[in-house]
Amino acid sequence: RIVRLVGVIRDWANKN
């Protein structure tokens, strides 16, 4: 599964 990736994408999207 790609749970960590989702967290990173969510954080990056929130920052961007």
Automatic annotation (TrEMBL):
Name by which UniProt lists this protein: Cyclic nucleotide gated channel alpha 2
